[in-house]
Amino acid sequence: MTKITEAYQLNAFGLTASGGNTAGIVLNAATLKDEEMLAIAKKLGFSETAFILPSKICDFKIRFFTPAREVDLCGHATIAAYSLLFQLGKLPAGIYSQELLAGLLEVRINERGQVFMEQSLPQFGPQFSPESIAPLLGLKAEDLSLSSLPIQVVSTGLSDIFVALPDRDLLESVQPDFEQIRAFNHQSNTVGFHVFAFDTTTGSTTATCRNFAPLYEINEEAATGSSCGALGCYLHRYWQPESHFEFEQGLNLGQPSKIIVDLESVEGEISKVIVSGFAGKPEILQGI
Transmembrane stretches, by residue range (predicted)? Predict the structure, then answer.
């Protein structure tokens, strides 16, 4: 395997020093083969590792791997990657283009090091009944029926199933059946479940979230930027046509996280999806 000399880890979206979601970042990945990238992602064991490559059509090309497979988009690894480049002095504040499997998307870094990533426009998929979903989460169908919001697939790059619960106590009581969830996601061609409640710890936060993606060897994730971007679009359609959302995640994991979502719209239709956040200090990885 090609020796990697520039590999780092850092937490994205953290509310505290121990909060956020850890991503691996490999800077000099141009010579790596697909199987080598997957092997590195497995070795690091983070929910996602980002591999930065040159692009002929954008400023950067980035590929994302979980320990199980490649994915089209990853929110927290994107925030971590551009924060790393900024902190290392490799990129000044500015606007950059990136080539992803999810498409050609824009990234902006401000003078404070906050990273703003564009996501794909939302696609709304099939809806599911409470009876079909509740057993996967260790809940009763009537628990899911307490919300008027649909159980639905939404994607801004990755397809997740969104499930609204009436309060944070019920959200915290969710006991996911990972084998059933894995099978359901495989059958429905989706990535995971993003379960949320409007009951939050702060007045500025829109919702508290939990994310389960065992099909990709991510049983539960502390911060899921791609899913929160889609959640903002879902709430814009079914709850309130807001343009700004703040989501908390990772509380039950002891990794409190904050994901900010801003939407632009034209005549009520979403025209741009932006997810933003900060990342912590990078730690260089040896022996990769």
Answer: none
**Domains in the chain, CATH or no CATH each:** 7-118+278-284 (3.10.310.10), 123-276 (3.10.310.10)
Read off the pLDDT of residues 122-161 as tens digits, 9 standing for 90 and up: 999 999 999 999 999 999 999 999 999 999 999 999 999 9
Alpha helical stretches, state H, 68-140: 75-87, 130-133
Q: Which of 35, 48, 99, 220 is catalytic?
A: 48
pTM exceeds 0.90: yes
Strands (E) across the chain are located at: 7-12, 21-26, 48-53, 60-65, 70-71, 94-100, 103-109, 115-119, 123-128, 151-155, 159-165, 192-197, 207-213, 218-221, 244-249, 257-266, 269-277, 283-284
Maximal CA-CA distance, the chain: 54
Cα 288 from Cα 251, distance rounded (Å): 31
The predicted structure's pLDDT at residue 4 = 54
Task: Print burial letters for 56-83: b (CB count within 10 Å at least 16), e (below 16).
Answer: eebebbbbbbbbeebbbbbbbbbbbbbb
Q: For this structure, is 48 an active site residue?
A: yes
Q: Are 273 and 122 in contact (CB under 8 A)?
A: yes
